[in-house]
Each structure stands twice: as structure tokens, then as C-alpha cells.
Amino acid sequence: MYTFVQKFHSGWAYLALLLLVFAVVNSFLGKSSKREFTAKDRRIALFGLIATHIQLVVGLILYFVSPLGSASIGQMAESDVRLTWLEHPLINIIAIILITVGWSKHKKAATSEAKFNSIFIFYGLGLLLILSRIPWKLWF
């Protein structure tokens, strides 16, 4: 089970990042061109939100079923272990909270510009945080 969850978490990350980048770029283009916020724009942001939440749930499952967890606690001084077991989960939870806040703020916004702006800012910050804490050595 651990191997399946680990591979799913790694594979789903590509889709989640792609959808998140697409949502950020779409909101930037919508904001800069001053177009109306449509149902298509809403769906793009929603798919980014859903993909990141699925990634979070799978990541939390992986974190708690991993056979490496208890052995790694004493090795937090090593940067790779600290990244994998502390920084990656913590920063990504914060990033997904920001993405969720962006989704909530866009729903309350009255104008298209405000909707695009909240998605661009909060999803963009979330994307930057996620990219900063990906364990790149394990990914490639």
C-alpha cells in the first residue's frame, strides 16, 4: 500500500502543479486583459483547488503510513530528511490554506477584476510555496 500511495502522490503532483499553474496564468491573463470572469474561469480555479486538496489528502496518508517516519525523527539535522518530513508537509499545508483563502475571497468579490486578483495573488503565493518545498532530488 505504501508504494502505491507514494507513486500516486508523486504522479498526481504533476497534474496538481499543471492545474495550479494554469489557474494562475489564466487569472493573470484575465486580470491584465480586463475581461469578465466567466464560468470557465471559475472551473479552472476550482480544478486547481480540487487537485491541490487531493494532493494534500494523499500526502497526509503517505506521511502517516510511511515506514520511514519513526526512523527519520532523530535525523532532522540532515537537510534532506528535514525537507521531506518537516518542511515539505508544513509549507505545503500553508500553501493549500492560501489557495483555499483565494478561492473563498474570489467567491465574495463583486467585480471580475477582484475575482481574478484574489485567485492570482493567493494561488500564485501557494504555487511559489509549493515549488519552494518540492524535494527535487527525489523527483528527478
TrEMBL record:
This is Cytochrome b561 domain-containing protein. Keywords: Membrane, Transmembrane, Transmembrane helix. The lineage of its organism: Bacteria, Pseudomonadati, Bacteroidota, Flavobacteriia, Flavobacteriales. The keyword Transmembrane helix applies. It comes from Flavobacterium sangjuense. The chain crosses the membrane at residues 12-32, 44-65, 85-104, 116-136.
